[in-house]
């Protein structure tokens, strides 16, 4: 067969986690907690199974869960998404992204992506026959020059993908960014995919700039989210998509034949768990403590710390130490220091290398301590 993705290899997360396992390294590469989720949540899922919630959920998701999500978004961002027609439960953020793109991207459509970018966007666009228009951002601040974005717009621009707080950089979009985006896309029908999986992991009192806050944008936007981040349960692979009715209609046309519906007892358990909003409203403080702890440890190493305003990733630069390729540096750290990271060049379609590595700090205190102890020897 002719490969549909001839230039796509195995995702860097699998590659680095496997390497970490092989060398019994401390795995700060793939983003997942090394501590368990709340036992109350596990009990609620067990209870749902025992109570017979073991058959198909409705195609768009459990109504109670959709209603809770709509309430959460209304309380936090003042946006009204109708649970029946504008909220869909998915098999994680990844399926929400894949489905949203599949629903609207046609051959030849151009999609603007800010890089470094989470690694599923570009291959999905390509798979659909779309063209990726990357805008490369650079360390230390990865800030967006909206005049440059403007230059990427053509008659074929179909969509722009946002991700704030951002993976891998930990940067966040400001109100000024959103205003610039609004101005740029005014009177156009350019769609937005806003990947907001880290909406509840944002630091130093910054306000998450959800697209749901902006009526003019949200009427042509998909917002995707993940319960994996919200509940410290990345292996459950549940998430959701918010979109106005006209887009949700198209989204569900794909969703119904992609997965039809997703895990019932977990949806029941999560719905019961999320009735208590403290479960997610304390997440920023929880991770800010981890970020501060990790940064204070790392400041003793020879790495240069880059800013981290959100997400559970800390990037470091070693450009002042050597010009080794970041992929080589990441392998070396595993093999000779026993710590796995992700080379940030993996998040650029052209493989641009700024000698930056990403570490996940959703880890126990002792894991972070042990890892940095090893990195001291660098
Ligand atoms: N988007 C971003 C930015 C992510 O970091 C992740 C995963 N960690 C996802 C989407 C996918 O989420 P999920 O694991 O729920 O598929
Ligand atoms: N989002 C996680 C990360 O950035 C990994 C998700 C995955 O392995 N697909 O590391």
UniProtKB/TrEMBL annotation:
Its EC number is 2.6.1.-. It is an enzyme of class 2 (transferase). Keywords: Aminotransferase, Transferase. This is Methionine aminotransferase. It comes from Pedobacter africanus. The lineage of its organism: Bacteria, Pseudomonadati, Bacteroidota, Sphingobacteriia, Sphingobacteriales.
């Amino acid at each position: 067969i002719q490969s549909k993705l001839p230039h796509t290899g195995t995702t860097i997360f699998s590659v680095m986690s496997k390497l970490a396992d092989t060398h019994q390294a401390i795995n700060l590469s793939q983003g997942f907690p090394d501590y368990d989720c709340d036992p109350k949540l596990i009990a609620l899922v067990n209870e749902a199974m025992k109570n017979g919630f073991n058959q198909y959920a409705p195609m768009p998701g459990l109504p109670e869960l959709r209603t809770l999500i709509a309430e959460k978004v209304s309380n936090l961002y003042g946006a009204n998404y109708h649970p029946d027609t504008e909220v869909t439960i998915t098999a994680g953020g990844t399926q929400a992204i894949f489905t949203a793109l599949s629903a609207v991207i046609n051959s030849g459509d151009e999609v603007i992506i800010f890089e470094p970018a989470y690694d599923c966007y570009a291959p999905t666009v390509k798979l659909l026959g779309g063209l990726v228009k990357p805008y490369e951002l650079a360390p230390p601040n990865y800030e967006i020059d909206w005049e440059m974005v403007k230059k990427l717009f053509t008659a074929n621009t179909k969509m722009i993908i946002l991700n704030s707080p951002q993976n891998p950089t930990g940067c966040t979009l400001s109100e000024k960014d959103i205003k610039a985006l609004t101005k740029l896309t005014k009177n156009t029908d350019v769609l937005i995919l806003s990947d907001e999986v880290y909406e509840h992991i944002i630091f130093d009192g910054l306000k998450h700039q959800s697209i749901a806050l902006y009526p003019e944008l949200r009427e042509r936007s998909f917002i995707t989210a993940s319960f994996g981040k919200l509940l410290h349960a990345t292996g459950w692979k549940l998430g959701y998509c918010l979109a106005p009715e006209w887009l949700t209609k198209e989204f569900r046309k794909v969703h119904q034949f992609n997965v039809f519906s997703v895990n019932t007892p977990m949806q029941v358990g999560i719905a019961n768990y999320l009735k208590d909003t403290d479960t997610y409203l304390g997440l920023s403080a929880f991770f800010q403590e981890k970020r501060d702890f990790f940064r204070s440890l790392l400041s003793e190493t020879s790495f240069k710390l880059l800013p981290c305003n959100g997400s559970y990733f800390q990037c470091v630069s070693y450009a002042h130490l050597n010009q080794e390729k970041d992929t080589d540096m990441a392998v070396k750290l595993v093999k000779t220091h026993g710590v796995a990271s992700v080379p940030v060049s993996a998040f650029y379609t052209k493989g641009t290398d700024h000698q930056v590595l990403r570490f996940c700090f959703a880890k126990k205190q002792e894991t972070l301590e042990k890892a940095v102890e090893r990195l001291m020897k660098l």
